[in-house]
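pipeline/complex-builder :: batch 7 item 3
reading input block
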Amino acid sequence: MSDLLERLRERGWRMTAQRRVVAEVLDGDHVHLTADEVHARAVARLPEISRATVYNTLGEMVTLGEVIEVSTDRRAKRYDPNAHHPHHHLVCARCGAIKDVHPTGDPLASLPDAERFGFSISDVEVTYRGTCPNCAAA
Ligand SMILES: [Zn+2]
Ligand SMILES: [Zn+2]
């Protein structure tokens, strides 16, 4: 399990009912939800929570560095609580399932000097695409 709630508490983040619900929705492994998905799940637990509150809360978690924004396709940004362990993503092209993965070797180091064009490179994002076992079996 990711320990998002615990991390937020340790940061001294004031835990209101709304914030707690958003954090609970995002807690776990391989969680990559769009803001609308977070809102839909939050409403199931706390019917009065507004879309604006969910968006603001997600923005605050990102600012704190406890949630990262992930774009694995041209669709909406996704929110990922796995913020402290660098990872890449494996995406099913059919159903959109997303797994956190850790390739062997450092993708940053694998770019040849000749293709760095003098850049000092600070970050790399790799998305592996394919078909998940569920979709392959269907
Ligand atoms: Zn799939
Ligand atoms: Zn992830």
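note: The two ends are 29 Å apart (CA to CA).
queue -> next item
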